Amino acid sequence: MGIIKAKQLVHEYIRRDEEGNVESIQTALDHIDLDVQPGQFIAILGHNGSGKSTLAKHINALLAPTEGSLWVDGKDVTQEENILPVRKTAGMVFQNPDNQIIASVVEEDVGFGPENIGVPTDEIWQRVEESLKSVGMLQYRHHSPNKLSGGQKQRVAIAGVMAMEPKCIVLDEPTAMLDPNGRKEVLHAAHELNQKKGVTILLITHYMEEVVDADYVYVMDKGHVVMQGTPREIFSQVGTLKEHGLDVPQITLLADLLRQSGLDIPLGVLTREELVDAIMKIAG
Amino acid sequence: MSLILDKINYVYSEGTAYQIQALKDVNLEIRDGQFIGVIGHTGSGKSTLIQHLNGLVKATSGTIYFNGQDIYDEDFDLRELRNRVGLVFQYPEHQLFETTIFDDVSFGPKNQGLSKEEAGLRAFEALRSVGLPEELYYQSPFDLSGGQKRRVAIAGVLAMKPEVLILDEPTAGLDPAGRDEILDLVARMHKEKGITVILVSHSMEDVAKYVERIIVMNHGQVMFDNTPCEVFKHYKELEQIGLAAPQVTYLMHELKEKGLNVNTEATTVAEARESLLEVLLGREPNHRGSNLEEENLC
Fold first, then answer.
1. How far is residue B193 CA from its own chain's centroid?
2. Less Cβ around it within 10 Å: N or C end of chain B?
3. Residue in B with minimal Cα distance to A45
4. What is the per-residue pLDDT for A20?
5. Residue B37, min C-alpha distance to chain A (Å)
6. Do A250 and B289 count as a contact with CB atoms less than 8 A apart?
7. Residues of B with CB below 8 A from A275's CB?
8. Distance between CA atoms of B251 and A127, rounded to whole angstroms?
């Protein structure tokens, strides 16, 4: 079984009036199936309101399924006794770095999690050092977090999750509030953790550029998984992506337009190098 | 109607250990009806710059002229300036506070001293122009989606009928559909009402697509101030200051290096496509896709 497995997962947000009568029901997740293998780098794409974040909160047992089942590392998230183990298995990083940092010194912030679950002091420091190193922030360990840039703060937040030694990290739009440099830093850190430490990564985003290097991509819309496949398979369907409110990177869009104009360009071009090669081949 | 910045300097926390010069000898002229993009990496002085334009921060030295009048003059009416130069901050939806969307949007004009009826008319007009469905007008702004909230916040500024609209990263955190919604709205305001627009952005692709003039900020100074194609010619320098040209510009440069005679000034997908079709198929330059007509051409 994969590290995250969802079977016919449904989540409904129910709004009630003051007397507790149901006012409206919104289905945020509509029979989702998901199977993530350990060590994979998974991207979940979708526009605002497509259900991505609702799904993410299930993986961390912050929300419970209305119907269907979800197992994280083999544990059923609906069982009360599994909630803490599940949260230790799957760490979560949110969008706004300022909402996730609580201590006034970087290393104390990173050590907060392990301290909270009763890790011995020596081991806490070891974990703090290790996780700061893994996101490239070790030289800032004695700094105050509020003097850091957005990308640096977000990497501290990731280090804080790493210090809990999770098998899996869910990043919920971790770059949405960052500038291009910060975005690069955070993505780089996520890929490093995936490759060097073998942590399973679930990256939730609406920036298409960020999913190019993922192993597998799920596209969500209106609570459904509407497309899934490798980045190349996904990006070869420019029209379908647009229907789901998503954009493709400039390079992929250009390649698609050129192909429509009758040029012999392969489907699903992802990188500049590929497009340069394809064009040079045509030019002879 | 124009804004002129003359040798503007701004220093944060002057005389303390945290002293930072955020703006250094900035000279700019912002003419009526322009669509301007301001780019620069975090901390380059973009936000400080735009907060000078409606007198929210006062320059440490230098002068700003609004229609020829010095805004730092004692008898200059700063209130009037703020009525005419509207500023939409980053994450403007955090500033929504009223119980209904309609009240929130009419707060600005009411504050300007307009009567309740007039303010209401302004709010209707502004909400209609941002394309918010009418059945939502009397609902709480907090139940809206992120993109809708932001449109309401922008409507709140539009209701004050500014002549200059300044937006600080209006698309940050929005998905592609929300981003297009906001940028198309701004472009429409510019086109239909002739409003001067100043757009602060991190996205080179967006800037290249919409604006006619780019101001590049670096370490508090104006590094470039020109049309998109001219500015993006300096893509190597832009990289050194933590920015980048649009992806297609790089592509065109790489093709040129390999000996293909393409237009390296292309900054949008439409321009790149046109140049490539011309080179590869020998097509006439004017043949363009109908879905791309809105983009600027060099």
1. 16
2. N
3. B175
4. 81
5. 16
6. no
7. 251
8. 43
Element (H, E) at A58: helix A52-59
pTM of the entire structure?
A: 0.81
> Is the Cβ of A149 closer than 8 Å to some Cβ of chain B?
yes
Q: Tell me whether residues B251 and A177 touch, CB distance under 8 A.
A: no
Tokens of A131: 């996780």
B41 located within any domain: yes
Binned at pLDDT 50, 70 and 90, residue B56 comes out as: very high
Q: What is the distance in angstroms between the CA of the first residue and the CA of the last residue of chain B?
A: 27
Q: Does B33 touch chain A (CB under 8 A)?
A: no
* Strand partners of residue B63: B6
Q: Strand runs (DSSP E) across A127-223, as ranges? A: 168-172, 200-205, 216-221
Instruction: For residues A116 and A103, give the distance between their C-alpha atoms in angstroms, rounded to a whole number.
Output: 13
Retrieve residue A43's tokens.
């991207």
| Burial readout A196-225 (b: 16 or more C-beta within 10 A, e: otherwise) | eeebbbbbbbbbbbbbbbbbbbbbbbebbb
With both helix axes pointing from N to C terminus, report the angle between A272-283 and B269-281 in degrees, rounded to the nearest 10.
Answer: 20
Nearest chain A Cα distance for residue B171, angstroms: 10
Phi and psi at A196, nearest 5°, equal: -85, -35
Phi, psi of B245 (to 5 degrees): -80, 165
What pLDDT band is residue B285 in, cutting at 50, 70 and 90? low
Residue A190 is part of which domain span? 4-231
Quick check: helix, strand or coil at residue B268? coil
Residue B58 lies in a domain: yes
Which letter, b or e, does each residue of A226-250 get, where b requires 16 or more Cβ atoms within 10 Å of its Cβ? bbbeebbebbbbbeebeebbbbbbb
Specify the number of domains making up chain B: 2
Residue with tokens 């960020």: A210
Please report, for the domain that includes residue B176, its CATH number. Answer: 3.40.50.300
Give the three-state DSSP class for A221.
strand
Q: Rounded mean pLDDT of A68-89?
A: 91
Let me know how long chain A is.
Answer: 284
Q: Would you call A48 and B174 a contact, using CB atoms and an 8 Å cutoff? A: yes
Note the pLDDT tens digit of each residue in B36-45.
999 988 778 8
Within a domain: B238: no
Has residue B275 been placed in a domain? yes
Do B253 and B161 have their domain in common?
A: no
In this prediction, the answer to ipTM > 0.85 reads: no
Count of domains for chain A: 1
Angle (CA) A188-A192-A198 rounded to 5° is: 145
Report how many helices (DSSP H) and strands (DSSP E) chain B contains, helices first: 11, 10
